[in-house]
């Protein structure tokens, strides 16, 4: 079962990159800065993904964007049939987050579905259930 702490993402829009990064990291989030940052104390966060108020596990990814940073789209990988650990690893490698319903087993559904294009930092909602084994 998953024992990670759930944390609401704070609003860091309007803060400088240094303060925004420090605030997010202090809560246990991994931060990716998108855009040109010549001076992190002067560059301002124009947007963030996931949006503030989203509740995620500690260690989840938050992308913060400067004014000139384009949003990057990625295709959602197919994680059906994977364990939570496997699914989390694949999603994080693609700069995506995971929100899990269920305790043990394998991924039986995911939303958005695989091959959907989403912005980096998007939360993929998955349902995990135990595999039923046919004993006959």
Describe the structure.
This protein has two helices and ten strands, in the order βαβββββαββββ. The strands form four sheets. A three-stranded mixed β-sheet has the order 2-5-3, covered by helices on one side. The protein has a three-stranded mixed β-sheet with strand order 7-10-8, covered by helices on one side. Strands 1-4 form a two-stranded antiparallel sheet. It has two domains: 6-65, Trypsin Inhibitor V, Chain A; 73-129, 2-Layer Sandwich (Trypsin Inhibitor V, Chain A), CATH 3.30.10.20. It is α/β, with parallel strands linked by helices and 136 residues long. Helix content is 15%, strand content 32%.
Portion of residues in beta strands equals: 25-35%
Largest sheet, in brief, is: 3 strands, mixed
CATH class of the largest domain: Alpha Beta
Low-confidence stretches are none
* Overall pLDDT metric: 92
Global morphology: elongated
If classified by CATH, what would the architecture of the largest domain be?
A: 2-Layer Sandwich
Number of strands: 10
What fold name stands as the CATH topology of the largest domain?
A: Trypsin Inhibitor V, Chain A
Seen as an oligomer or otherwise, the chain set is: single chain
Instruction: Give the terminus-to-terminus CA distance.
Output: 29 Å
Count of DSSP helices? 2
As a whole number of angstroms, the C-alpha radius of gyration is: 17 Å
Structural class: alpha/beta
């Amino acid at each position: 079962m998953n024992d990670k702490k759930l944390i609401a993402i704070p609003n860091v829009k309007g803060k400088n990159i240094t303060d925004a990064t420090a605030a997010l990291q202090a809560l246990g989030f991994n931060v990716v800065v998108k855009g040109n940052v010549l001076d992190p104390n002067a560059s301002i966060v124009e947007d963030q993904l996931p949006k503030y108020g989203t509740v995620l596990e500690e260690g989840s990814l938050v992308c913060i964007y400067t004014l000139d940073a384009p949003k990057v789209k990625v295709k959602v990988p197919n994680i059906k049939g994977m364990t939570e650990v496997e699914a989390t690893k694949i999603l994080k490698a693609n700069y995506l987050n995971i929100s899990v319903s269920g305790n043990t087993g394998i991924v039986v559904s995911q939303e958005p579905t695989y091959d959907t294009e989403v912005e980096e930092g998007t939360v993929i909602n998955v349902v995990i259930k135990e595999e039923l084994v046919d004993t006959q």
